[in-house]
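Exam revision sheet. Question 4 asks you to relate a sequence to its structure. Input first:
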Amino acid sequence: MSPVPEPEGAQVPGEGEPAAAQVPGEGEPAAAQVPGEGESSAARVLAEGEPAASGTPGGGGSAALAGNPGEGRRGGAGRESRGRLAGRTAAAVAGGLALFAAFPPLGWWPLAPLGLALVAGSLYGTRPRRAAWIGALAAAVFLFPALAWVRTIGDDVWVMLVATETVFYAVMSALAAPVFRLRAWPLWFGGLWVAMEWARGLVPIGGFPWARVAFSQGESLFTRYAALGGAPLVSFAVALCGALLAHAVLVRPPAARPWLRAAPAFLALAVPLLTLAVPRPGDEGRSVNVGIVQGNVPGRGMYVLGDEPAVVLRNHAGETKRLAQAVRDGKLPRPDIVVLPENSTDIDPYRDETARQIIQDSVADVGVPTLVGAVVAIGDDSRATRSLTWDPVTGPGAYYDKQNLVPFGEYTPFKDLVLALWERASLVGRQSVPGDRPGDLRLGPVTIGAVNCYEVAYDATVRGTVRAGGTPIVVQTNNASYALSNLPPQQLAMSQLRAVEHNRAVVTAATTGISAFVTPEGKVSWQTRELVADMNVVTVPVRAGETLATKVGAWPEWALMVMGVAAAGAAAWRGRRRVDG
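Answer key, structure tokens:
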């Protein structure tokens, strides 16, 4: 992309505010221009058919990526050239691919700001209608591979999910289009990106906060922003950095102030480097030995339990006994607590005495309080996904029921209609009911913060558990249906971000992997391979100090969203005034 000026809004020449040079009374940018002094031939080619600048020659130049004057204008000139439209399309596709590569399992995190720079560049100067489909294209290119793990359920579900999520990116892009005419537009673009991710995590049917840009930054220069403002601030920082990079390439400063060319690039570099100044909480001198058990399951895909009843329960009970034997043999240190995965028993221990006894025998063998994952019946028609404390002497005790349930996995929205259309929906079985309290559970010498699988993507759920006193955070997960896909490493990256966000160690126990221990600094200290039975005892720091993000909660997110939406409203109002004038 060649350096070109910012798309212009009406201004007094020389004031430095973006101006929209327009034909009087039409409210639209003029299409033709005489090439500005010092403008490159490439920029002149790109500028063909684009809005003219109102600045003096060489001080404003032409807006090479400033939009399609023929789209929706009254009495306008020709439409955007095919070559220029192809350039926008290529930038959107490249941006989407770069975003995908930033996420695990590739995890090339610097590509996230680069991808957003390309997306911003593809939208820069175009009009809302065209911006919407360009943004949707970038989103589809990003989300189809990023959410490829959904194909386990079915290609139709994968396509429908991506199509739904793409709508949010399209709306955001349409709102962003007029924002590029404002001063400091990289800030407003970042705010709109945060608002889009917030909306994705809210609707429909409980939202889907997976694949937020912050979750590509599990261990990067941007990660420390999580301690200040959580995942939303990380997403904002990445979007701001990308938008500044786009600004540095696309916008030509006035000839009298050429040094302004370097300012956006310098600021883009400063955004991630500023995290080096964020204070890092120190060790508090307390730790706990945590046994982690990964029992594995025999089946794959949608039939992970295989054909043998209670096999998941026996696998995890057997691996717990292996851990106990390794401790007795001196191969592992004695644990203070043991953590099993979500769904570590496929039989309800409240209703089945054999299942209850198998769990009791394994917990008594290891000799310490254990966190068991169970799906338990609630009445005759419902169930709950439960984190259940189990004492080696007294048996089952306090519990936490999963709050954020997986649509079409743990319950069926619009049940009658969906069951009539898709036979696979019947695999859900009993409908799960959500819990209504945070996951702080007393387990041995500590109060853990229980989080179940899918919930690690939800800011409020994890934050509520930490505020209730949970430390360390314990993520019980069942990824068996998605083994060897990109879901397990994506989920581990979320745990890394949560560790930094709340200054808490995170212990993950998974049925088939990836089980792991993440330090409060976001470092993966130990992890398992997938599709193997494994166990270990790790020494986990116990911290009680709260980060700023834990204390202030969602306030930074709301501030960033209001900033972005207000800018979009102001830009739309200015555009309407020009049209009405």
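Marking note for examiners. Residues 1-78 have pLDDT under 50 and may be disordered.
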